[in-house]
Amino acid sequence: GQQLNQSPQSMFIQEGEDVSMNCTSSSIFNTWLWYKQDPGEGPVLLIALYKAGELTSNGRLTAQFGITRKDSFLNISASIPSDVGIYFCAGQLGGANSKLTFGKGITLSVRP
Amino acid sequence: DGGITQSPKYLFRKEGQNVTLSCEQNLNHDAMYWYRQDPGQGLRLIYYSQIVNDFQKGDIAEGYSVSREKKESFPLTVTSAQKNPTAFYLCASTRQGSIQPQHFGDGTRLSIL
User: Fold this and answer.
1) Which of A20, A91, B6, B9 is most enclosed, with most CB atoms within 10 A?
2) Which residues of chain A does B92 touch, with a Cβ-Cβ cutoff of 8 Å?
């Protein structure tokens, strides 16, 4: 089946630093989504990407839909302590109500 | 406020017992989903429903059952056949035919006594 690869499993950065996370797949997707999950809560959508090559920003977050449709990256600039959490990528092949395939997530820690 | 409500937040199950997790949404969404999350793992799809009175198995449906009698409700039953039920369960929903991504509830953590 389809799988999304996110690595490393954990990242540790200093407050104020930028961080970039990759998500790769052996299969193509039509939609890429990035979610953030805080402990004990559900994932919250950060950015949705719908077109190959698309670059989208949401505040200090920027994400891109890879041209091959097999990868995406998320960049967080000038990190702050509340950026701590688990960041998941998800790919979708069909329309909005089709199944999502999730990566295993990257746990981000930010040192003050 | 519109949203997805999961209850209870924490649930304990005895061996051999069935338990039901509630998921209600007032977003008028057509499609609803149940995911299971284990530590260090991505979300895995258990069941999904695109319309009332219809649902399909996801990737890990064994030991689970669902119903969709009302548009706003999609309860998940964890049966005694599920031998490793301890996990965080997440419900999501979205509108059919739109490009709107799935939005999630805050989850139910199920543990075995």
Assistant:
1) A91
2) 42
Q: Tokens 């979205």 belong to which residue?
A: B94
* Structure-block tokens of residue B5: 């409500």
Can the peptide bond before residue A8 be classed as cis, meaning omega within 30 degrees of 0?
Answer: yes
Predicted local confidence at residue B16, as pLDDT: 86
Contacts (Cβ under 8 Å, ≥6 apart) of A51: A65
Please report the DSSP string for B89-110 in residue order: EEEEEE-TTS-PPPEE---EEE
- Residue A39 in contact with partner chain B when CB distance is under 8 A: no
Closest CA to A42 of B86, B67, B3: B3
Residue A97: the pLDDT is 63
- pLDDT tens by residue, B1-36: 569 999 999 999 888 899 999 999 999 999 999 999
Which tokens sit at B28?
């008028």
CA distance A2 to A55: 24
Averaged pLDDT, B58-62? 94
**CB-based contact A33:A99 (threshold 8 Å):** no
Q: What are the residues facing B92 on neighbouring strands? A: B33, B104
Phi and psi based region of residue B17 (left: phi greater than 0; alpha: psi -120 to 50; beta: remaining): beta
CA neighbor of A72 nearest in space, from A101, A41, A96: A101
